[in-house]
Amino acid sequence: MKRTWWKEAVVYQVYWRSFMDSDGDGYGDLQGLIDKLDHIQELGVDIIWLNPVYESPDQDNGYDISDYNAIMAKAGTIGTWETLLRNVHSRGMKLIMDLVVNHTSSEHPWFAESRSSRDSAKRDWYIWKDAKDGKEPNNWRSYFSPSAWERDERTGQYYFHSFAAEQPDLNWANPEVREAVYDMMRFWLDKGIDGFRLDAIALLAKPEGYPDAADPHDIRYLTNNPGLHAYLKEMNEKVLRHYDIVTVGEAAFVTPEEGLKYVGEDRHELHTLFHFEVADEMRTWDMLRFKDIQTRWYEGLKGKGWNSQFLNNHDHTRQVTRYGNDGRYRVESAKLLATMVHTLPGTPYVYQGEEIGMTGVRFPSIDDYDDIAMKNRYAEEVGKGRDPREAFESLLPLSRDNSRTPMQWDDSPNAGFTTGTPWIKVNPNYKEINAARDIARPDSIYRYYQRLIALRKRHPVMVYGDYRDLSAGDPHLYVYSRSLDDTRWLVLLNHADHETPFALPEGYSDSNKTLVLANYADVEGSESIVSATLRPHEARIYAF
Ligand code: TEU
After folding, report:
1. Best substitution site from 102, 228, 315 to test ligand 1's pocket, by max atoms within 8 Å of Cβ?
2. Domain range for residue 93?
């Protein structure tokens, strides 16, 4: 498999509206991001992934686009954006943008024209169906609402939306739609961006004939339908392959076999993907399940395609809260999870704030939350007669707002994020958890991320090494090897809140090891690990 820059890179995701506010309106913005590029660059990352900044009514925080070629006013101007790109490039980093083309905003001019009449020239740019028996055309749910159909009074038909009613799906079966998307992609690529993160890309093709779903709640029927890969092949042929870029697809509900169809090097579709098997299949954190997922994906893609590794982003709660320990062992746990994400096979992603161990949040009221998915679900549950408090509590752990609270820069008001009123409350733990405090400490999470990322630059085994799980049956201990040429690394991770015994696997000589990194500061590299005890959330990397 060929070696390339994006396989060796580390990506930092910026959810700009929560990153840094430069003008006091309570929203982060592009100038604020420019002002904080040192923080990102000094981590050692290579690529910045910027969540959508295009013009939008902001019903789904920019994932409902009303003008693909303009910058949302609250984020800045096209001029600020171009300054950002110049700064990112002058610092030796790259910028990838979010490509949201499964749907537009209902306020996009394309949709306004499409809904204007049944014989509008753009009617077929979206998906319109007649009622069935006086009701929705079928029983599909959307990701964000009880029905995937919205009735349009003017023309008496329903339009389809995979997400909110404010996000009508584009009809990808229509070549005019595809060509308009390709033109837009060229607009941004010709400005010099270095790639795209392709939003909800598994949803572009819809089930033939729009039949009722056996179980409308098992929303997999919206993903990976026939025709999808023809679209991606065409997108690659007409646009992607003509630029030196990286493309990462967000593909829900894919198996490794299906994932290979997206990223197989002989497929000429995308370069890599975020698969959500952890989030989709594992509602509770189960180490055995996670290890099985990792091994299946490694075997499924090995030598043929490239994976991406992440544990949190703007849609999933903060990793130290969901998969680690955000209390007594927060620092050790944050470092352990980072060690795992950066030493497993695939390109690692850092979501803003995880590099300082930011945690999930529990605000007291539904009114403190913004996430349309959460608020729609809350309204649906309460509408069915569920106790409001109970409904609210049940939605808290997986609310996307857990990851969307403002970046915690320092212990000044609003964590230094804004001089105004933040669009969403700051996590009250910002006085203890903030970048200024972390950067000042040599043993901090931020400093650990710097060391981890620097390792990746020096040791190809972290990028290209073969992977083997050596602890498959252990519910707490995750031990795996990465080997390349005559270099072998052993990664030891104790995911438990208690001590866990470890025995050096067969074939590893205790006298021939070098400690590469440890998240506990007092580990003696020379101490024997023939049989050792790993402390709660202890991580170590040894070279043999
Ligand atoms: O998310 C897509 C999405 O919601 C599903 O893929 C889901 O996240 C996955 O199955 C994991 O359970 C993208 C954006 O990341 C999100 O912020 C937007 O709200 C959504 O698309 C609509 O654009």
Report:
1. 315
2. 1-98+307-361+405-458
**DSSP readout, 15-78?**
-GGGT--SSSSSS--HHHHHHTHHHHHTTT--EEEEPP-EE---TTTTSS-SEEEEE-TTT--H
For the chain, give the percent of residues with pLDDT over 70.
99
For residue 280, the ligand 1 atom closest to its alpha carbon is 12
Give the residue, by CA position, lying nearest to ligand 1 atom 21.
200
Cα(282) to centroid(ligand 1), Å: 16
* pLDDT, tens digit (0-9, with 9 covering 90-100), for 233-292: 999 999 999 999 999 999 988 999 999 999 999 999 999 999 877 666 666 778 999 999
Report pTM.
0.97
Helix (H, G, I), strand (E, B) or coil at 190: coil
Whether 372 shows a pLDDT value over 70: the answer reads yes
The stretch 223-236 carries a mean pLDDT of: 97
Domain membership flag for residue 335:
yes
Residues 318 and 454 in one domain: yes
The verdict on whether 250 is a catalytic residue reads yes
C-beta of residue 444 within 8 angstroms of C-beta of residue 438: yes
**51 and 8 in a common domain:** yes
Residue 318, domain member (yes or no): yes
Q: Has residue 394 been placed in a domain?
A: yes
Nearest CA to ligand 1 atom 4: 143
Q: Does residue 281 sit within a domain?
A: no
What CA–CA distances, in Å, run from 468 to 308, 343, 381, 481? 17, 12, 44, 5
Mean per-residue pLDDT for 483-490? 97
Give the total number of structural domains in the chain.
4
Separation of 314 CA from ligand 1 center, angstroms? 9
pLDDT confidence bin for 521, thresholds 50/70/90? very high
Give the whole-angstrom CA distance, residue 305 versus residue 224: 18
